[in-house]
Design brief:
Elements: H1 11-15, E1 38-42, E2 45-48, E3 53-56, H2 59-62, H3 71-83, H4 94-107, E4 111-115, H5 118-136, E5 142-146, H6 155-161, E6 176-179, H7 184-190, E7 195-200, E8 203-204, E9 210-211, H8 214-227, E10 230-234, H9 249-252, E11 258-261, E12 272-276, H10 296-310, H11 314-335, E13 341-344, E14 347-351, H12 357-366, E15 369-370, E16 372-375, E17 378-381, H13 389-418
Helix pairs in contact: 3-10, 4-10, 11-13, 12-13
This protein binds pyridoxal-5'-phosphate (PLP).
Pyridoxal-5'-phosphate binds at residues 117-119, 122, 150-152, 201, 205, 234, 236-237, 262-263.
Length: 419
C-alpha cells in the first residue's frame, strides 16, 4: 500500500537534513519540525494538507490519550462551550469541581488544583513543597531530583530537570540538587538539613523511557518517611492510564505526598493538575492562581477523559495492547539488531544500535508513521490509549520499512566513504 503520491526521497535525504521550504517565517524556530502541515485527525491517524495519512504513535507527546478527535471529547467541549466557557478563575464552575472531586476520589488524594501545563503543575508542586518546608521543616527548601529527569521548560521546572540547554538561560533558580536515577545511596547521601522534598518521574520519559526499579522507588518512599521530607512524583506523562493503571505509583505500591498530572489528562487540550495528600495540603488563599486555572472548557475535557479511562475494561485494554506492542517491538528490534526495550503499558522506549534515532524518525515520516526520539539512540512510542491491534501491526510494518531505509542509507554512506 503506497500512501504517497510523491516519488520516494533519495537515501541521502533520510540521513542528511534536507533543506525544505518553511511553512512560515513568522513562527519562532524554537522547535525543529518537519515541513508538513496537519489538517485532520481521527483516532490513531493524522492527515496532512496534501491528504497523506500518517499513523500517529507519538500523539502530541502522549497528550492525546484517547487519540485524535474522539467523540467523547468533541461532545464534552461542544456541550461545555454552549453552556459556559470561562466564568473566570475567581468564580466556581461545575466542571472544575467535578474534575477535582473525581481526581481526588480515584487517586486517594485530599486536594487537587487545575492548571494549564505540566511544567506549571511541577512549578506549583515545588511551591507547595517550599511552603510546607516553611511551616514544618524550619524553612527547608531544597529539592533533590534526578540528573536525567525532565519536569518542563519553565524556570523552576528547568532547575529541577538539570537538563540540556538550561545553561543558556542562567542564572537558574537556586535550591535544587541532582543525583543519578535508580541510585538509592546517592539519593540518601544528598539529603541535608535544607532538603524539603525529593521529586522524581516514576518512569523517566525524556531520558529514554527509563523506569524506576521497584526497589528504588519503594526505598525513596521509605527514605522520605524516615527523614520527614516530601515525595513528589511527576506523573505528567505516566499518569491517567498511560502505564496501564490510573497512576504509575500504583504499580510500584508507592504513595507520594504530591503528584503532578498533565499531558493525557486533557486528551489534547491544555490541562494539568496538582494533587496533594495529608500533611502536604497547605496552600492558602492568595498563594497560587492563574487566569485559566480551572478553566471550565478544559476541565470539561478532563472529566470526559477521566470518565473514559476509568470505564470498565479500558485500563485492561491499555495493559493488553501495551504487551502486544512491546512484543512486536521486541521482535522487530531483534530482527534489526537493535537494543533494549523498556516501558510499561503504552509507553515504550527502544534503544537503537547506534545514534540513528533522528534518521529513523525521518524515515518513518516518509513511511507515514509519526514517532519521536527523546535521545539520539532512542525511539519513543506513546500511541493513543485506544490503539487497536491492527494499528500496532500496521505501525510495525512501517517501522520495519523505516529501519530498512536507514540501514540501506547507512551502508551506502559507508561505501561512499570507503571509495
Ligand atoms: C511533558 C512533561 C512535563 C512538562 O509538561 P508541559 O505540559 O510540556 O509543560 C513535565 N514532566 C514530565 C514527566 C513530562 O513528560
Amino acid at each position: 500500500m503506497n500512501l504517497f503520491r510523491r516519488p520516494a526521497p533519495s537515501l541521502d535525504d533520510l540521513i542528511l537534513d534536507a533543506p525544505h521550504e518553511l511553512p512560515s517565517e513568522s513562527l519562532m524556530p524554537t522547535v525543529a519540525r518537519p515541513a508538513q502541515v496537519f489538517v485532520r485527525g481521527q483516532g490513531s491517524w493524522l492527515w496532512d494538507s496534501e491528504d497523506r495519512a500518517y499513523l500517529d504513535f507519538s500523539q502530541g507527546s502522549a497528550a492525546n490519550s484517547l487519540g485524535h478527535s474522539p467523540q467523547v471529547l468533541i461532545n464534552a467541549l461542544a456541550d461545555q462551550s454552549q453552556a459556559l466557557i470561562n466564568p473566570g478563575s475567581g468564580l466556581h464552575n461545575r466542571a472544575q469541581l467535578n474534575l477535582v472531586d473525581r481526581l481526588c476520589q480515584h487517586t486517594g488524594s485530599d486536594q487537587g488544583y487545575l492548571l494549564n501545563s505540566g511544567a506549571e503543575a511541577c512549578e506549583a508542586a515545588i511551591k507547595l513543597a517550599r511552603k510546607w518546608g516553611q511551616l514544618h521543616r524550619g524553612g527547608a527548601y531544597r529539592i533533590i531530583s534526578a540528573s536525567t529527569g525532565c519536569h518542563g521548560r519553565s524556570f523552576a521546572a528547568m532547575a529541577a530537570s538539570a537538563g540540556a540547554g538550561a545553561s543558556r538561560f542562567e542564572p537558574l533558580l537556586p535550591g535544587f540538587s541532582h543525583v543519578p536515577f535508580n541510585d538509592l545511596p546517592a539519593l540518601h547521601a544528598a539529603v541535608d538539613a535544607q532538603t524539603v522534598a525529593i521529586m522524581l518521574e516514576p518512569i523517566q520519559s525524556e531520558a529514554g523511557v527509563i523506569p524506576a526499579t521497584e526497589h528504588y522507588l519503594k526505598g525513596v518512599e521509605r527514605l522520605c518517611r524516615e527523614l520527614g521530607i516530601l515525595l513528589i512524583l511527576d506523573e505528567v506523562q505516566t499518569g491517567i492510564g498511560r502505564c496501564g493503571t490510573l497512576l504509575a505509583e500504583q504499580q510500584y505500591g508507592v504513595r507520594a505526598d504530591i503528584v503532578t498530572l498533565g499531558k493525557g489528562l486533557g486528551g489534547g487540550v491544555p490541562l494539568a493538575a496538582l494533587l496533594a495528600r495529608g500533611k502536604a495540603c497547605c496552600f492558602e488563599a492568595g498563594e497560587l492562581a492563574g487566569t485559566h486555572h480551572g478553566n471550565a472548557l478544559m476541565a470539561a475535557a478532563g472529566v470526559a477523559v477521566l470518565d473514559t479511562v476509568l470505564a470498565n475494561g479500558f485500563l485492561q485494554h491499555v495493559r493488553e495492547s501495551g504487551l502486544y506492542l512491546g512484543e512486536g517491538l521486541a521482535r522487530l528490534a531483534y530482527r534489526y539488531d537493535h537494543g533494549q526495550l523498556r516501558g510499561h503499558g503504552l509507553m515504550w522506549g527502544l534503544t537503537l544500535s547506534d545514534d540513528c534515532a533522528d534518521a529513523v524518525v525521518k524515515a518513518a515520516l516518509h513511511e507515514g508513521l509519526i514517532l519521536n526520539a527523546p535521545q539520539p539512540d532512542c525511539l519513543r512510542f506513546t500511541p493513543a490509549l485506544t490503539v487497536s491491534k491492527s494499528n500496532i501491526d500496521e505501525m510495525l510494518l512501517r517501522l520495519a520499512r523505516a529501519f530498512a531505509r536507514v540501514r540501506t542509507a547507512q551502508l551506502q554512506c559507508r561505501k561512499g566513504i570507503a571509495v
